[in-house]
Amino acid sequence: MGNVGAKEIPVLLSPEGLRIDGRRLDELRPLTIQAGALHQADGSAFVEWGANKVLAAVYGPREVHPRHLQQNHKAVIQCRYNMAAFSVDERKRPGLDRRSQEISKVIGEAFESVVFAEEYPRTSIDIYIEVLQANAGTRCAGLVAASVALADAGIPMVDLLPAVAVGKVGGAIALDLKKEEDNFGEADLPMALVPQSGRLVLLQMEGHMTEAELAQALDLGVKGCREIYEKMKQALRERYAIGPMAGASS
Ligand code: UDP
User: Fold this and answer.
1) Which domain holds residue 86?
2) Fewer beta carbons under 10 A from the terminal one: N or C of the chain?
3) Ligand 1, from 79, 86, 138, 139: best to mutate by most atoms within 8 Å of Cβ?
4) Through-space distance between the first and last CA atoms of the chain, rounded to whole angstroms
5) Whose CA is nearest to atom 11 of ligand 1?
């Protein structure tokens, strides 16, 4: 490693195998999920994941806008991922850029694989994801938030959709990359899992890794998703007070 212009590349992995924030390779950043964070939406969730702060709001099933997108045999799932201008170090130009359009598309498609859209023909299920603070992995945080928001809205689904980005940093496969690891690492691989079936419904990759590393990364990502899945279910349990504490809270 060396210098890129005046910018020093940080040491991403210590000789002891610890990462820039002291995490082990298979460790997630702290994750908290609040289901039902908004009153106006049909369903909502707020996710704080490391330094990411992401809000998701779900509306519907409701009338389709624009009308020509309406489908006679199923609901259309429309997703809008947006990054606030103040969410990143260098102010982001407001509005939908190519990156936001791409992320909105892949998240919407991931949900198309799990939502029982045929139950609501000629309607729209609208998912809004607002990134208030970004530190890598925001599409995954958005998926997690939107998934809990969909469940909060009572939309029938095969399963929740946990998601996480795995990558390669300092030559090693690591779970849940933060900003420096995303920027200076060798690869970034966001994924979303249907826990029941083990099927991946989102898988993207930037950078390079060998076939063996890819297999290791997928394995680590699936394990990470299963950990996140438990937290998503817990957030919904807390919202609806299911389980031993039912009726105990106000
Ligand atoms: N980012 C930024 N400005 C932008 C887009 C992204 O600073 O216009 C940062 C932000 O912290 C984001 C990270 O780069 O989380 C990684 O972006 P990427 O496109 O890989 O998506 P993400 O990892 O957030 O899903």
Assistant:
1) 31-241
2) C
3) 138
4) 55
5) 135
Is residue 5 domain-resident? no
Please report, in tens digits, the pLDDT of each residue of the chain (250 residues total).
444 445 688 999 999 999 999 999 999 999 999 999 999 999 999 999 999 999 999 999 999 999 999 999 999 999 999 999 999 999 999 988 999 999 999 999 999 999 999 999 999 999 999 999 999 999 999 999 999 999 999 999 999 999 999 999 999 999 999 999 999 999 999 999 999 999 999 999 999 999 999 999 999 999 999 999 999 999 999 999 865 555 444 4
In a domain, 237, yes or no: yes
User: Is residue 13 a part of any domain in this protein?
Assistant: no
In terms of phi and psi (left: phi > 0; alpha: psi -120 to 50; beta: otherwise), the region of 139 is alpha
- Reported pTM: 0.94
Spacing, Cα 84 to ligand 1 middle (Å):
12
Which one-letter amino acid corresponds to residue 131? V
Ligand 1 contact, 134 CB (< 6 A): yes
**How close is the Cα of 136 to the center of ligand 1, in Å?**
5
Distance 183 CA to ligand 1 centre (A): 9
- Whole-number Å distance, alpha carbon 105 to ligand 1 midpoint, is 16
Count how many domains the chain has. Answer: 1
